[in-house]
């Protein structure tokens, strides 16, 4: 990913849904003014969801998602519909494309019920307006024609109005800093660190610090003590990679605010309180319990991998219990969580807020505790209260 590219997790996710041959992909192409999706009169042309990150005025950076027809049939069709339903977990705005000549079908109504149940803002887009019309439209309905581009600009404006929300002013750490402050970032470099670059939360944190007029000082954990001594004034905050919490807590003085990238990300994504509460379940683990450790991205596992190696090791050392571990990554996250005694998720930097919150709510809704890497590690290192104190909780 380019350093100048808006992360997909910070893009507004706009999902296009509808029955086969409602003209959904044609509307996608008209909406984006690009040939993103293959268009055909053959039903079921769109199979797996199609994702496209782009800049779209007047909304800015967005993620367009074209999905398979919700009425797809057969065994393969059912798998496609399942993928379509998974897209709902990350959709910020849903566009339900309906053939104006056929009207809303029972399958469309089922989708609308899902939108409402998941509190997803949605617009009903009646396509093929060049062939018919519809009176008495609701506020969240519009008539367009993908063929003639009728109503497409109005549709963009309607979506843009919905997407102007409270997320525009959310900050990772900038709201805790003032111009002229110093923030020290501790970035360990080991075999699991990507070669030649910083990981996304580190990049985002540096940018947010700079946007606040503060100064970011970046060092490895091995140079942290020397760096703190060399500074001309006390840092406003020290932010560390969670996996070196145990070492860093002994270097950073008690009167110096300390937290981690993962904890900041939990706050940014909106699940910090739930994650702090969920971490207490670590003390209640018993022999034979099963923990799900989930990552939002996929990457090559290495010998020092935090999710599959370090966390399980630390949990067994801390609890002294013989617990079991299962792992998930990327878009795969189980719907049925009841078999687990605890879910520990990554910071979610590669997932948009809606998907992370869905995973948290789905877990907690099944009476399973939910926390994240940084908070779980801070708990086991005995500094959870210290690490969340700078966040004004």
Overview of this protein structure:
The protein is an alpha/beta fold. It folds into three domains: 8-167, Rossmann fold (3-Layer(aba) Sandwich), CATH 3.40.50.300; 174-264, Rossmann fold (3-Layer(aba) Sandwich), CATH 3.40.50; 273-384, Rossmann fold (3-Layer(aba) Sandwich). It contains 13 helices and 14 strands. The strands form three sheets. Strands 2-3-1-4-5-6 form a six-stranded mixed sheet, sandwiched between helices. A four-stranded parallel sheet has the order 8-7-9-10, sandwiched between helices. Strands 12-11-13-14 form a four-stranded parallel sheet. Strand 11, helix 10 (306-319) and strand 12 form a beta-alpha-beta unit. The two termini are 33 Å apart. Mean pLDDT is 88; it is low at 42-46.
Blueprint (SSEs and pairs):
Blueprint: E1 12-18, H1 24-32, E2 50-56, E3 60-66, H2 74-87, E4 93-99, H3 106-117, E5 122-127, E6 141-143, H4 152-163, E7 182-186, H5 200-211, E8 215-219, H6 224-230, E9 237-240, H7 245-248, E10 258-260, H8 261-269, H9 272-279, E11 290-294, H10 306-319, E12 324-328, E13 342-345, H11 353-364, E14 370-372, H12 373-380, H13 384-388
Parallel strand pairs: 1-3, 1-4, 4-5, 5-6, 7-8, 7-9, 9-10, 11-12, 11-13, 13-14
Antiparallel strand pairs: 2-3
